[in-house]
Amino acid sequence: MGRNTRKRRSPLAVRAIAASAALAVAGGGLVWANFYASAGESKSKPNATLAAAQVATIACPDVGQKLTNVPRQARAGVAKELALLDRQITEAYKRLAETRQAQSRDANFVNNAILGPLKSKRSATIDRIGINIRRVGGQVPQGMAQLATCQSKTDQAQTNAGGAQQGGQQQGGQQQGGQQQGGQQQGGQQQGGQQQGGQQGNNGQGQGQGGNGPVAGDFININQVQPNGGPKGVNGNGLAANGNGGSRGSFTTNCGNNKNEIRNSDNVIVAPGVSNGAQHQHDYVGNQSNNAFASDQQLANAQTSCQNQGDKSSYFWPVIRIQDGTQDIDQGKPGGGQDKNVGKIVEPNQVQLKFVGNKRGPVVAMPQALRIITGDAKAFVNGLGNANTNWSCTGFENRVVTDKYPICPQGSSVVRTSFFQSCWDGKNIDSANHRTHVSFVKGDGSCANGFKAIPQLQVRLVYSVPAPQIQNGQVKNAYAVDSFPENLHKPITDHNDFINFFNQNTMNKMVNCINNGQNCK
After folding, report:
1. Is the pLDDT of residue 270 over 90?
2. What does the pLDDT look like over 331-387, one tens digit per residue?
3. Residue 418: CB partners within 8 Å, gap ≥ 6?
4. What single Pfam family name could you report for this chain, choosing any that match (predicted)?
5. Angle between helices 116-135 and 72-98 (to 10 degrees)
6. Parallel/antiparallel/unpaired status of strands 320-322 and 344-346
7. Over 125-165, what HEC string results?
8. Which in 41, 103, 257, 436 has the greatest CB count within 10 A?
């Protein structure tokens, strides 16, 4: 139900049974082959593989990102309707995954049986969003009705997976290990066999995440990535705010690596009051009471895992799972197997939380309860407008990829890095679409639109995961972030969340340290 879970793992594996079919849908951009897996949960052979397939997912306009001016009185109701839109997409995606044979027999099946009914449901939900807004005197953006229409989406990474030899060096045209953002069309990985809500682990073979990605084309050997200077995010999202000038200090907070195993599939920022609003599990450090129903007062009074008890902030990100054929405590549950997130959850070995200054000048204090989301959990279907990802390996952190998972050599660990937005509008702790109250610095460190520079949160997560193996275009023992099902566990969907609950004394100390060029804890 999206509540906090403390996990104890039990190994389960599922035998994948490949079947063959091919479907070309005129005008739909779909090509299907070798498409489904068994429904049962049973032990599988360690070296079993599923044949490569190019598979589509469902891409729907992100209604929430269009709502930039929702009256506060309407936001709770709108948030519930937006969460319903997400569930509708998930249901349609599952039907897409479970009806391969019907699709092979009827070229119009996807449009008539999946996309058409989905549009009708979305239209009704979008209408209710408008009612919520108008009821309190707000204005509904023009063109909302057009957002009901969804489309099918193919996956270039799946097409290119057959050439991903020797640890995924072959990127299918994605230069420099996927640095070219246009190659983001990786997407629809999800390998046909998705049935059963992603329950099957498939021993991490071929399709990853129970037939729902990742695939071989989503991985790159870090040795094949050219040095590119380290984390820079995506298209200007996620540049470092600090530099040789301005406020050069830092403040580091140590909040552990979630040994308490506090997790849930909620997101109190985007979907307050909605259980399983994220449809994927988050690791939480810092604040120990974060769930969909937590009020600001409850968060401010909560326990914290941070050594500095003046920091009750909440830091959270999607978990990483290893697709080695085992399952976790959320098998078959919302946010887990029910939402096609399968495999063994692994905690980061290291969690580094550092706040830095701005290379143009001093920073100001963040207001309590300020919410910041960086990156986009739906970037595969939404595009790169809000994407902010950095993947690398220890010892190779001057080589970063954004739309690939790195395969690290022996003795090296996987690194995820996020540089947050650090320009604030000076007024709001959140905004209707959870984006417009904060922004990223420009290349020179300046803030646009009269926004004020605040300390930039830089998060670095390090994981010891077995190196995935690429054999005959298939991936074995893959790892991946949890995601919304239709986003196919793509690396570009990585994201990170922060809610500020430093007490005022500790926040003042942070600002003074940063502005005075000191490195504090």
Report:
1. yes
2. 999 999 999 999 999 999 999 999 999 999 999 999 999 999 999 999 999 999 999
3. 238, 317, 374, 375, 388, 389, 390, 457, 458, 459, 494, 495, 496
4. DUF1996
5. 170
6. antiparallel
7. HHHHHHHHHHHCCCCCCCCHHHHHCCEEECCHHHHHHHHCH
8. 103
- Give the C-alpha distances (Å, rounded to integers) separating 370 from 210, 293, 300, 365, 431: 37, 17, 12, 11, 10
Tokens representing 202 are: 């498939």
Please answer whether residues 216 and 407 qualify as being in contact, where contact means their C-beta atoms are separated by less than 8 angstroms.
Answer: no
Residue 162's pLDDT band (cuts 50, 70, 90) = very low
pLDDT digit string, tens, across residues 202-215: 333 345 666 788 99
Residues 477-505 have a mean pLDDT of 97
Each residue of 437-455: pLDDT tens digit?
999 999 999 999 999 999 9
Backbone phi, then psi, for 98, in 5-degree steps?
A: -100, 5
Order the strands of the 456-463 sheet from edge to edge: 391-393, 414-419, 456-463, 350-356, 250-253, 519-520
- 382-to-59, 90, 376, 379 alpha-carbon distances in Å: 7, 15, 8, 5
Average pLDDT of the chain? 84
| pLDDT band for position 26 (cuts 50, 70, 90) | very low
Q: Give exposure, 382-410, as e/b (b: 16+ Cβ within 10 Å).
A: bbbebbbbbbbbbebbebbbbbbbbbbee
- Encoded tokens for 433: 């679409």
> Among all chains, which residue has been given the structure tokens 């005197």?
137
In angstroms, rounded to a whole number, what is the distance separating the alpha carbons of residues 183 and 173?
Answer: 7
What is the distance between the alpha carbons of residues 450 and 374, in angstroms, rounded to a whole number? 20
**Sign, Cα dihedral of 447, 450, 453, 454:** negative
| Beta strand 405-407 pairing with 219-221 | parallel
351: burial class by Cβ within 10 Å (0-12, 13-18, 19+)?
Answer: buried
Q: Which of 208, 215, 237 minimizes the C-alpha distance to 379? A: 237
Whole-number pLDDT of residue 111: 93
Burial call 250-283: b when 16+ CB within 10 Å, e when fewer? bbbbebebbeeebbbbbbbbbbbebbbbbbbbbb
Cα–chain-centroid distance for residue 238? 15
| CA atoms of 321 and 285, how far apart (whole Å) | 18
Q: Would you say the C-alpha torsion 144, 149, 155, 156 has a positive or negative sign?
A: negative
Q: How confident is the model at residue 519 (pLDDT cuts 50, 70, 90)?
A: very high
